[in-house]
Amino acid sequence: MSSPPGTGGEPEIVTGSREQLFHLLAEASEIEHSLMCSYLYAAFSLKSHDAEGLSAAEGKAVARWRKAIMGVAIEEMGHLMLVANLTVAIGGRPHFARPNFPVAPGYFPAGVVVRLSGFSAATLDHFIFLERPLGVERDDPACYEAPDAARDQHGAGLMPSAQDYTTIGHLYEAIRQNLSGLVRKLGEQDLFLGGRSTQVDKAVAGLDGVAAIDDLAGAYAAIDLIVEQGEGSPADREESHYRSFLAVRDEFTTLLSANPGFEPAWPVADNPVLRHPPEPQGKVHIDAPEAAAMLDFACASYGLLLRVLGQMFGRTGSDIAGDQKTLMSVAFELMHALGAAASELATLPASTATPQIHAGMSFTMLRGVEPLLADVEAVLLREQLSLLGEARLASHFTAGLRDAAAALRLASDPRR
Description:
- The chain is mainly alpha-helical.
- α2 packs antiparallel against α7, α9 (289-311) packs antiparallel against α10 (320-345) and α10 packs antiparallel against α12.
- The chain has helices at residues 18-45, 56-89, 121-130, 168-186, 188-191, 202-205, 216-231, 241-258, 289-311, 320-345, 377-389, 395-407; strands at 2-3, 13-14, 272-273, 284-285.
- The strands form two sheets. It has a two-stranded antiparallel ribbon with strand order 1-2. Strands 3-4 form a two-stranded parallel sheet.
- It contains twelve helices and four strands.
């Protein structure tokens, strides 16, 4: 069944079975995951505050912008964790897969163009467009415009239907309406059957607002938090992602007016790729030897990070919370290594053919990030951590990973 169109000209909402809800939650996961990577890429492209050519005032501004954008990216990670909790709460597994960048036109609705671009006025305007509240009219920069690709929605049958939307908030409204419809149909107890102990909360994740979910009120609270942190509440919260990007854009415009030669970011590639692409248009293959080795390490760290996050959900055993905290500590080490490598990449030439263009973190996905078998997970995680720790890079990239490999012990570990 479908609900009437909402405010702001949004498409009607399709409601259906639990499978329809899983379908919507998987798309929400991919959106949050992709946005997080896009924001991180822009933040990593910014120069250090003491970089040559920046005045003291410009350096301080660049440091503020990096902190602000990183803060938004961290909240996107919190959103990803909340969507994972909601998926587990109704009996599923977290969905941490997503398409590689650049995302093909039409994969998401036409208004949601997701790619990797360095910090610039156009990039900021695109972020503002993506995070805009329902009912706010803004145009996406011309360089981000995509062909109209409205989705063909059908009333949900046995297979789930696509859900079209022009703002991300409307996708979450579709999730909300599917939740309420299933509670009416199945009852709250039969919808939320995943259990709280198999989820991740703030005590484990260290992220504000991340909470276990076991009822409709908790699910609504999670959705409200995601939407309000993104676009802002009706009270127009100054700390929303939308307002944060507006503030950065306005300060950048002011400083650029005072100094037209102001360059706060490295000239990083748009849509860098790890492997030579069969269709190279719009992509930059990172093949300069130093950058290629660093990107290989960064992407492998990212892939293992996704595996570790996946292992934190749906756990059983004698010490679920303890194992989750152990895995989270490994995740933090991987985040640190990834961030250091991504920042270094922005300073390196991308290719011997185009040395004026710098490299960047491509966030290349593994083919699959499904959970590892519980009785061998520690062995496999240690194995990959050790390989990363042995990479031929400076020790500040790898030392923490070697230590994490040596210290990793889980309740199911045969070496415990």
